[in-house]
Write a structure and sequence with these properties.
Blueprint lengths: L1 E11 L7 E10 L4 E11 L1 H8 L10 E2 L4 E8 L11 E4 L13 E4 L2 E4 L9 E5 L3 E3 L15 H12 L8 E4 L3 H12 L5 E5 L2 H9 L4 E4 L5 H9 L6 E4 L4 H10 L5 E4 L21 E4 L7 H13 L10 E5 L3 H9 L5 E5 L4
Parallel strand pairs: 11-12, 11-14, 12-13, 14-15, 15-16, 17-18
Antiparallel strand pairs: 1-2, 1-4, 3-5, 3-9, 3-18, 5-6, 6-10, 7-8
Helix pairs in contact: 2-3
C-alpha cells in the first residue's frame, strides 16, 4: 500500500547543535517488516545527548532523526509483519525483539534525504522495524510508557541480567538521572540492601533517597569513596551500577567493586577520554561487565515490567516525568544536561 504522510520531527542536522524541528515526509510503500506508527509520547534519553555531542566519534549519517523509546499506535504494517497489527498500542525500543528486521526508512526534508535507524521517536509519526516495537495492553498513563522502551527496562536488566542481583545484595548506583533513579527503584523492588547513590546534583541524589536509597552522596564530596565504604562496612559492595559514562565514575565503580564485587557499566564513555583501570582485581573474583540495554528481551520483558508497574511493585509511575511539546524539545534536552530530576518526555499530541 502506498503511504504518503507529512509530519513534524526533530532533526539532528549537525553535531553539537540544537535539533531542528520542521516538517518532513515519508513517501512510498512500506517495505517488508516496516511498521508505520503514530507516536503519542517519546522519552529523551542520555543516549540522544551522546549522539548530539558525537561522543563515539564523527557522525556519518547527518542529517538524521533521533529517539529510541516511545509509545504509539500502529497505523499500517508492511508485508510479512506478524507480531503487531493496525490499531495496536506499542512500546518502541532500541533492543531487538520478535519479528522481522526491516531496512531503515528514508525521509525527505526540504529536498534532502533524512536518515533514520530501525527506530526513531522524536517525531509525530515514524516508520520502525517490526522487531523494535512490542504490543502492550494497559490503562497506565501514556506519558510513563516510553520509559519501558529504554530507561525502565535497562535499569531492571542491568541489575538482574548483567549484575545477577540477589536478595540482600548491597548496591551502589552511580548517577541518578532517569536510568539511575529507576535502577534505585528496581534494586529496592528486588530486595537490595543497602542501596547507596552518587550524583553530581544534590536534587537528584535526594530524589534517589525517596525511592529507597539509604545513603546518598554528591560526587564532588572530597571524601566520597571513604564515605561510601563507611556505609557499606566490612562487607563491602556486591554490585555497582555505573550510569553516567564519566571517566571518574567508571574508575570509582571499579574500585568500589574490587575484592569480589561486580561492576556493570551502563553509561557510554567518551571516545577520547578513556578510563584507567588496574586489572589486578579481575584475577581475584571481581567482575566487570559492559551493559547493552540490560540484556533484555523486549518482547518478553516489557510486558512483564508493565505488569509489575501496574501492581505497584516496580513503581515506574512514581518517577518524576516532565512533559514538553515537540517544539520545545531542545528545552527538554537542556533539562537533562542541567540535572533536572526524573525523565523528560515529549508529548507529540501537544501542538
Amino acid at each position: 500500500m502506498q503511504v504518503m504522510i507529512n509530519f513534524n520531527a526533530a532533526i539532528l542536522e549537525s553535531s553539537h547543535s540544537p535539533l531542528v524541528v520542521d516538517e518532513i515526509s515519508f513517501r512510498g510503500p512500506l517495505a517488508a517488516g516496516q511498521v508505520l506508527l503514530r507516536i503519542f509520547y517519546s522519552g529523551v534519553c542520555g543516549a540522544q545527548i551522546n549522539e548530539i555531542d558525537a561522543v563515539k566519534g564523527p557522525d556519518r549519517f547527518l542529517p538524521h532523526l533521533l529517539g529510541h523509546e516511545g509509545i504509539g499506535e500502529v497505523i499500517e504494517v508492511g508485508p510479512s509483519v506478524s507480531t503487531v497489527a493496525q490499531g495496536d498500542m506499542v512500546v518502541m525500543h532500541w533492543m531487538v525483539g520478535d519479528g522481522l528486521q526491516s531496512d531503515p526508512p528514508k525521509f525527505e526534508w526540504r529536498g534532502r534525504e533524512v536518515n533514520a535507524g530501525w527506530i526513531t521517536t522524536f517525531s509525530e509519526y515514524t516508520v520502525a522495524s517490526e522487531n523494535r516495537v512490542t504490543r502492550v495492553s494497559t490503562d497506565m498513563l501514556h506519558k510513563y510508557l516510553p520509559l519501558f522502551g529504554c530507561a525502565a527496562s535497562t535499569a531492571w536488566g542491568s541489575l538482574v541480567n548483567d549484575g545477577h542481583m540477589r536478595l540482600g545484595d548491597s548496591v551502589v548506583v552511580l548517577g541518578a538521572g532517569g536510568v539511575g533513579l529507576l535502577t534505585v527503584e528496581a534494586a529496592r523492588a528486588g530486595g537490595a540492601h543497602p542501596i547507596v547513590v552518587v550524583d553530581r546534583f544534590s536534587d537528584r541524589a535526594e530524589a534517589a533517597q525517596r525511592f529507597g536509597a539509604e545513603s546518598v552522596f554528591v560526587s564532588d564530596r572530597p571524601d566520597l569513596e571513604d564515605g561510601i565504604r563507611q556505609v557499606l562496612g566490612s562487607r563491602g559492595c556486591d554490585l555497582v551500577i555505573e550510569t553516567t559514562g564519566a571517566k571518574s565514575m567508571i574508575e570509582l565503580a571499579y574500585r568500589i567493586a574490587a575484592h569480589g564485587g561486580r561492576a556493570v557499566l551502563v553509561g557510554v564513555p567518551q571516545r577520547d577520554n578513556p578510563a584507567s583501570l588496574n586489572t589486578l582485581d579481575l584475577h581475584f573474583g571481581m567482575t566487570l561487565t559492559g551493559s547493552k540495554g540490560g540484556s533484555v528481551n523486549p518482547s518478553i520483558d516489557i510486558p512483564r515490567l508493565v505488569d509489575l508497574a501496574e501492581r505497584d511493585i516496580y513503581r515506574v509511575t512514581s518517577i518524576p516525568v516532565s512533559e514538553f511539546c515537540l517544539g520545545d524539545i531542545n528545552e527538554g534536552i537542556d533539562g537533562i544536561r542541567n540535572g533536572q530530576t526524573g525523565r523528560m518526555v515529549i508529548n507529540m499530541m501537544d501542538s
